[in-house]
């Protein structure tokens, strides 16, 4: 290599290095919101589905500058790997299935290659690379943040107010009875464990019950690497048990404090504060199906989740950590369960659930967007003629029976419906199986190109 070639080579290397970019994208949502399907589709669209007609709003692709994506060679060794390949196998099987939901924290790294815009950069090198780290974690863990602003007594009171709600009360009876029987002054380790297990079962039961979103503490339900840790022996005592000092109250207060110090704070410090961008998936349609209390609770849970993204100067988060999330996408998932003319209403409903048009958010220092999407479109939209009128409809395969169905799922309310409406009307949005087959890849979607543009567009310039 001549000295000139050598300089050019090193210049190129330097160019590659300095223009290499890293982006850590967090994907979250409450259990069942669609994280697994979303990440599988996102990775698929970036590696296989990168055809202009398939992703019309992804500008780097439309401008002919996208050179392709692949799974990075340097996958993290100490963190569970997001099972992309297995998931794709489910989605492209014959007949296609939904992949099993992930639990806990997992990650997958991609390398995205593109030609930069702008002549100076293009002369310096042939291409640039964006290292995209996709991190999947349960939205339930974000529900823990408010615990930092409460003490154990306040948290317990909050829990029991929640458990008194009509859709929750019946399930909490057994745990309540166990608490009432226990001797606060002398509780054995075995009894403590029994109560913990009973509370854990209650949380588990709630999490499988439609319309219950607010499970705390998040790690008791999804412990991740903390399974069995003593500080997870944490449950809310009854309001009357909080009035007098007792060894059990002291023990719970201690565990609560440890949970805040050794679980919540490290999660925000080590993981959350390293994220650059965030997707929050919300299944609004399932909440509508489950009724009034469910929608109210979803709104409450989203309010708590939003606290993690409001870090104006006075916020708790900025005082404790230095979050650097610059963009947050709130996505109403499974939009393919309604006809396309309802997507606008679904987006408006999501915005209302987030309690404000998020673009005008005065708290957020991050750019935010809300949209209705389907990571993997499981329906075909069309029209049927009814009494001479064209009526929109969707068709697909019913999730429970696998049978083909064609239906009009109904209108999505653009605003949170008042309690009275549920007495006259029961929402019945369907659930469908994916219709894709290996031959039909790339995976069909709704607005994943908008998603990619919002999350990555500016990083691929
Ligand atoms: P997670 O618990 O957040 O990881 O949720 P999943 O991604 O496992 O999704 C839960 C279920 O929601 C899936 O098994 C599907 O039935 C459904 N689902 C998720 N994404 C979509 C989508 O884009 N379209 C449709 N029709 N259903 C979806």
TrEMBL record:
Family matches, as InterPro entries: P-loop_NTPase, YcjX-like
Coiled-coil positions: none
Pfam families: DUF463 (PF04317)
Phylogenetic lineage: Bacteria, Pseudomonadati, Pseudomonadota, Gammaproteobacteria, Alteromonadales
Protein name as annotated: ATPase
PANTHER family for the chain: ATPASE, ATPASE-RELATED
Organism the protein comes from: Alishewanella jeotgali KCTC 22429
């Amino acid at each position: 290599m001549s000295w000139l070639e050598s300089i050019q080579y090193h210049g190129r290397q330097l160019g590659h290095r300095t223009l290499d970019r890293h982006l850590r994208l967090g994907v979250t949502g409450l259990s069942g919101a669609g994280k697994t399907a979303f990440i599988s589709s996102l990775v698929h669209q970036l590696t296989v589905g990168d055809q202009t007609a398939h992703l019309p709003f992804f500008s780097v692709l439309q401008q002919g500058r996208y050179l392709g994506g692949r799974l990075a060679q340097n996958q993290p060794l100490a963190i569970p790997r997001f099972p992309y390949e297995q998931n794709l196998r489910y989605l492209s099987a014959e007949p296609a299935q939904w992949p099993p939901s992930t639990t806990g924290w997992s990650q997958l790294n991609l390398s995205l290659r593109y030609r930069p815009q702008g002549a100076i950069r293009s002369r310096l090198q042939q291409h640039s690379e964006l290292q995209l780290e996709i991190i999947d974690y349960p939205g339930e863990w974000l529900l823990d943040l408010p615990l930092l602003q409460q003490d154990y007594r306040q948290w317990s009171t909050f829990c029991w107010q929640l458990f008194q709600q009509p859709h929750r009360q019946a399930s909490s009876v057994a745990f309540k009875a166990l608490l009432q029987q226990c001797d606060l002054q002398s509780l054995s380790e075995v009894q403590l464990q029994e109560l913990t297990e009973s509370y854990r079962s209650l949380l588990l039961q709630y999490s499988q019950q439609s319309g219950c979103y607010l499970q705390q503490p998040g790690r008791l339900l999804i412990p991740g690497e903390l399974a069995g840790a003593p500080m997870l022996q944490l449950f809310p005592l009854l309001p009357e048990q909080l009035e007098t000092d007792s060894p059990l109250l002291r023990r719970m207060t201690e565990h609560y404090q440890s949970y805040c110090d050794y679980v919540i704070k490290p999660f925000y410090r080590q993981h959350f504060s390293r994220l650059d961008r965030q997707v929050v998936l919300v299944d609004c349609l399932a909440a509508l199906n489950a009724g009034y209390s469910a929608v109210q609770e979803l709104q409450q849970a989203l309010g708590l989740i939003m606290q993690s993204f409001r870090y104006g100067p006075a916020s708790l988060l900025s005082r404790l950590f230095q979050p650097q999330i610059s963009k947050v996408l709130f996505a109403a998932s499974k939009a393919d369960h309604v006809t396309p003319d309802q997507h606008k209403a679904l987006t408006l409903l999501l915005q209302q659930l987030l309690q404000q048009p998020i673009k005008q958010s005065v708290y957020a220092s991050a750019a935010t967007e809300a949209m209705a999407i389907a990571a993997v479109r499981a329906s075909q939209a069309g029209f049927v003629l009814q009494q001479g009128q064209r009526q929109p409809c969707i068709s697909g395969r019913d999730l429970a029976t696998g049978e083909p169905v064609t239906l009009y799922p109904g209108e999505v309310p653009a605003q949170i419906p008042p309690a009275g409406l549920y007495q006259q009307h029961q929402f019945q949005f369907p659930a469908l199986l994916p219709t894709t087959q290996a031959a039909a890849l790339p995976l069909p979607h709704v607005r994943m190109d908008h998603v990619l543009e919002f999350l990555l567009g500016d990083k691929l310039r």
